[in-house]
Amino acid sequence: MTAAVLRVRGLCVDYGPVRALTGVDVEVPDGAVTAVLGANGAGKSTLLRAVSGTLRFHGGAVTEGSVALGEDRLHGVAPARIVAAGVVQVPEGRQVFARMTVADNLRAGALGARGGRAAVRAALKRVHELFPVLAERAHQRAGLLSGGEQQMLAMGRALMAGPRLLLLDEPSLGLSPLMTTRIARTVREINAQGTSVLLVEQNAALALKLASTACVLENGRVALAGDADELAASDEVRRRYLGVADEDAATETGAAVAAGTARPALSRWSA
Ligand code: ATP
User: Fold this and answer.
1) Which residue CA neighbors atom 31 of ligand 1 most closely?
2) What is the pLDDT of residue 28?
3) DSSP 65-88
4) Hey, whose CA ends up nearest to atom 21 of ligand 1?
5) Which end of the chain has less Cβ packing within 10 Å, N or C?
């Protein structure tokens, strides 16, 4: 059995009187990509904020449960220490420092890095290999990059800290299909190089292709969880998140049952 790099147990989060997460259990197996799916407002960003320790900047707080990186407890720990422990978030909407150059944005990412100058040089080399455009545009102001290039910069900046676990919030948001494919390829490459990924995506088809495990959040609770390929094949996910019409799914399921090739049911977690 693979050990989990991240283990979230019974997590409850409130924004003042608003309960955003209730009893959420999520695990990222070491070396895996785990996807979190769900409709608008389901609690996906809140989950990432709870892991990165940034909830307090949004007026939120963990009220119950735990978050652990390996054996280390993360909940209640300051965001800078969470980065130093190896967990780095790429926030939704990219949020690069628009007036700073590309090179300075990357340098800023290295501020929380573990290791010394050699580690920073190695991280910069890795980022330039993954995103050659960031080397070509090193002295350009980040705000002048295209949306896709800004997404690359946001990911590159996160990688400068040498994370063990990368938290990606909607990396495909607002990007062209071509750029989305490029970003997806890079996520695969980053993961193949040994970085685990917790990926929040509205684009369920993309997320389930990239991930090995996934969960679906509904109204702040885990509604479904399992292997990504099993989720991708489940009627409920196909209908609700992959846009496959009922009739279509019913016909396919009927055929699978008749042929004896129907997949086992996923765990439907009671709310
Ligand atoms: P989206 O896909 O639209 O980004 P999401 O799944 O990431 O949605 P969250 O942004 O985590 O969902 O929101 C979960 C719940 O918490 C929602 O009901 C939302 O209104 C509420 N919420 C989120 N941020 C805040 C905040 N800063 N203050 C108060 N309530 C918030």
Assistant:
1) 15
2) 97
3) EEEEETTEE-TTS-HHHHHHHTEE
4) 20
5) N
- Low-confidence residues of the chain: pLDDT under 50: 249-250, 253, 257, 262-271
Per DSSP, 202 falls in state S
Which of 194, 190, 224 shows the shortest CA–CA distance to 208?
224
The one-letter code for the residue type at 254 is: G
- Which residue CA neighbors atom 23 of ligand 1 most closely? 46
Helix axes 147-159 and 102-109, enclosed angle (nearest 10):
30
Residue-level pLDDT at 90 = 92
Give the residues surrounding ligand 1 with Cβ less than 6 Å away: 15, 18, 20, 38, 40-46, 58-59, 202
Task: Give the nearest ligand 1 atom to 15 CA.
Answer: 29
Q: What is the pTM of this model?
A: 0.88
Ligand 1 mutation pick, 36, 44, 47, 219, max ligand atoms within 8 A of CB? 44
Running DSSP on this structure, what letter comes out for residue 171? T
Predicted confidence (pLDDT) per residue in 189-201, tens digit: 999 999 999 999 8
Taking CA atoms only, the protein residue closest to ligand 1 atom 19 is 41
Q: What whole-number distance in Å separates Cα of residue 154 and Cα of residue 252?
A: 40
Chain centroid to CA 174: 16
What domains sit in the chain, N to C, each tagged with a CATH number? 4-86+163-259 (3.40.50.300), 96-162 (no CATH)
